[in-house]
Design brief:
Elements: E1 5-10, H1 21-32, H2 41-51, E2 57-62, E3 75-78, E4 82-84, H3 87-96, H4 107-134, H5 136-150, H6 155-175, H7 184-205, H8 218-232, H9 239-246, H10 248-261, H11 286-311, H12 330-338
Parallel strand pairs: 1-2
Antiparallel strand pairs: 1-3, 3-4
Helix pairs in contact: 1-3, 1-8, 4-5, 4-6, 4-7, 4-8, 5-6, 7-9, 8-10
Function: Involved in transport of proteins into the mitochondrion. Essential for embryonic development.
InterPro entries: Glutathione-S-Trfase_C_sf, Glutathione_S-Trfase, Metaxin1/3, Metaxin_GST, Mito_Protein_Transport_Metaxin, Sam37/metaxin_N
GO biological process, one term: protein transport
Length: about 350
């Protein structure tokens, strides 16, 4: 029996199956591309997660990108040999395996789908990067905090900052401006483009369940992946969120996809065990996680002290008992420190 492909994704939160836009797109396309249309939500979820409705995929959710075969998320490992990291490459691979979410689209609908996906990449994605990774309060209070709390020690100390720098580089590339910096003028321009894109998507969707009728396509997956994080996250600066919530059809669109394909991700205080088990290397058990992090912190502290002693950054002097009888000369100590 052939080894199933493995799909590695960021774990979820805020009622979403994943906190990552790229992972949301890949997860949704992986499900709808096999024609999953059952009305039984429990059956839908079991098939989607456990078997991906017949697609030979094994899902691994995690909060440590270094446990991915590519060092990034999402990633698709094919037969334990090749690894695909870009969502577009993963989608192309699924299509080669006869899992095509756009199989029933006409030529015109296919062209419309590509046009709207390109529009989102140009107008909406830059604003998403800014909202979550550049805007100061959102980054500090939501994005950096989430990754720092979910990543294992010591990655949580430096990986969020590295990820932010990469996102800034991506934003500059998308905008074609190497000198682009955060500021009110840039924010206003990015938000204007994003609002325009949302309005166009809302007009195209209209009163339909999905963008091309009663069946989902890759465009639905892309729209969901881009809009759901804005809708569900608790952002201090929620300008885009407020506008999205004013567009009832797009809000209902995201909610319906969550209910249909990921019903358990939005449930709170559920006593049922999740169908997808996180990678054990990510400290799944909360008591063990805290104990391991505490022990790791002690080890790291010991290592830093040892390094300081070995390099002469800190020295320990043996003081004779007689020297303790008189207080040291403060001025002499200051002069010695200055030297």
């Amino acid at each position: 029996m052939a080894t199933p492909d493995e799909l590695f994704c960021w774990e979820g939160d805020w009622g979403l199956p994943s906190v990552s836009t790229d992972c949301l797109v890949v997860l949704e396309i992986s499900i709808i591309s096999v024609g999953l249309k059952s009305q039984d939500q429990t059956t839908v979820e079991e098939k989607a997660y456990a078997q991906f409705a017949g697609a030979p995929l094994k899902l691994r959710k995690m909060s440590n990108p270094w446990r991915s075969p590519s060092g990034s998320l999402p990633a698709l490992r094919i037969h334990q040999k090749e690894t695909l990291s870009r969502p577009s490459d993963i989608i192309i691979h699924l299509r080669k395996q006869k899992y095509n979410a756009d199989y029933d689209l006409s030529a015109k609908e296919g062209a419309d789908s590509l046009a709207f996906i390109s529009l989102m990449e140009e107008k909406l994605m830059p604003a998403l990067i800014y909202v979550f990774w550049i805007e100061p309060k959102n980054y500090v209070d939501v994005t950096r905090r989430w990754y720092a709390e979910h990543m294992p020690f010591p990655l949580n100390f430096f990986l969020p900052g590295r990820m932010q720098r990469r996102q800034m580089e991506k934003l500059r590339l998308l905008r074609g401006d190497e000198s682009l910096e955060a500021g009110e003028e840039v924010e206003k321009e990015l938000y204007h483009d994003a609002v325009e894109c949302m309005n166009l998507l809302s007009q195209r969707l209209g009163s339909q369940k999905f963008f091309f009728g009663d069946s989902p396509s890759s465009l639905d997956a892309y729209v969901f992946g881009h809009l759901a994080p804005i809708l569900k996250s608790k952002l201090p600066n929620g300008k885009l969120q407020q506008h999205l919530k004013s567009l009832d059809n797009l809000t209902n669109f995201c909610t319906n996809i969550l209910l249909l394909y990921f019903p358990r991700d939005g449930r709170e205080n559920s006593n049922q065990k999740p169908l997808v088990q996180h990678d054990s290397g990510d400290f799944d058990h909360v008591p063990n996680k805290r104990r391991k992090q505490f022990l790791s912190a002690l080890v790291a502290l010991g290592a830093m002290v040892s390094y300081a002693l070995l390099t002469g950054m800190v020295s320990i002097q043996h003081i004779q008992q007689e020297a303790l009888e008189e207080p040291p000369d403060l001025q002499a100590i200051e002069e010695e420190g200055d030297g």
